[in-house]
Amino acid sequence: MIKLSEEEQSQLQQGYLACLRDEYAIIKASGKTVLDYLQGQITQDVHHLSQTQSIYAAILTPQGKTVSDLHILCGHGDELIMIARRDYAEALVARLRQFSLGHELRIGLVNSLKLISIQGPGCDELLHNLKLSFPTHKHLSTASAADSEQFTMQMGEAADIGVWIVTGDAEALLKRCNRIVDESTMNAARIIKGVPVYGIDWNKKIFPLNANLIEFDGVSFDKGCYVGQEVTSRMQWRGGIKKRLYRVQLESLPSALPCPLSTTVEIGMVTSAAMNSDGEVYGIAHLPIELVEKQMPLIDPEGDSVSVIEACHV
Predict the structure, then answer these.
(1) Is 253 exposed, middle or buried (0-12, 13-18, 19+ CB in 10 A)?
(2) What is the pLDDT of residues 115-139, one digit of tens each?
(3) E strands along 61-140, which residues?
(4) pLDDT tier for residue 2 given thresholds of 50, 70 and 90
(5) What pLDDT sits at residue 1?
(6) 126-133, Cβ contacts within 8 angstroms, sequence gap of 24 or more
């Protein structure tokens, strides 16, 4: 059972929780033409990237399906730091290397760098006590120390206020945090908040615009060409976005995931679910937009009702 304790829920609302996010891998890319190259590969515009602002994007196949999603932030010099789900990181690196002919590009996994998540309003005070640079509260804003491999990004994955820290000294940093949880707890909080992840709540079978890439500011419709753009643009301008990921509330935890949802026929799936300390169950579901807008009643296999709260978004 994925459930938050009363203490964990309280810390997310009034203090902080810290976690080593080993489900994510860190990739470095560098080279004189790395930004020009990425502009033709990712869904977001690299011109939005700066020393104080990271971006979220996806890498697509020519058919518009997702290879991986990723967060990109500026490192030192011409280096870029990429954060991707570990299960897809090697495929992401291979994909970027495959089409880099003619570009000065160095890219690879960096096992010495780890990702730490600190979630809750107390993270600002903690960063101050740790003498770490901290970003503004703007989504995906970043800060870094000029003399160390440490980069902080505003990322509320489990609380309204939260950061991700890319660091080469994760063990020492975590020793100075006194509210450490494991990844299952952080994922429970993420699900309750309604933040989906690639590989669990959506995958390569789902077009990224049907998985709220727009709502998470992961795509630009004004930039030049990139791999998969034709399909993605056609979906946007011709009304091809038929489904979305939604934050939902359930009467009880599903016995298995994914869990089908029905009206008179099966129309969608709950992909993640978790319980808060009050016994309330929240989940993430992939559902047709039209039926949600019509407020069609939804039931799970046990006959329990499922209510839609809102589309998943930043």
Answers:
(1) middle
(2) 999 999 999 999 999 888 889 989 9
(3) 66-74, 80-85, 106-109, 114-119
(4) confident
(5) 57
(6) 126/16, 126/18, 126/177, 127/152, 127/163, 129/176, 130/173, 130/176, 132/165
Residue owning tokens 């903690």: 126
Eight-class DSSP state of 46: G
Tokens of 132: 């770490």
Structure tokens at 131: 């003498």
Give the Cβ contact number of residue 239 at 10 Å: 8
At 24, is the secondary structure helix, strand, or coil?
A: strand
Query: What gap in Å lies between CA 288 and CA 75, rounded to an integer?
Result: 40
Give the predicted TM-score (pTM) of the model. Answer: 0.96
Q: Which H or E element spans position 170?
A: helix 170-175
Domains in the chain, please, with CATH?
A: 6-192 (3.30.1360.120), 242-314 (2.40.30.110)
pLDDT at residue number 161: 95
Mean per-residue pLDDT over the chain, rounded: 95
pLDDT confidence of residue 99: 83
User: Cβ neighbours of residue 238 under 8 Å, at least 6 residues apart?
Assistant: none
State the Cα–Cα distance between residues 270 and 286, nearest whole angstrom. 7
Report the distance separating Cα 227 and Cα 43, nearest Å: 8
- Going by C-beta distance under 8 Å and a sequence separation of 6 or more, which residues neighbour residue 32? 78, 104
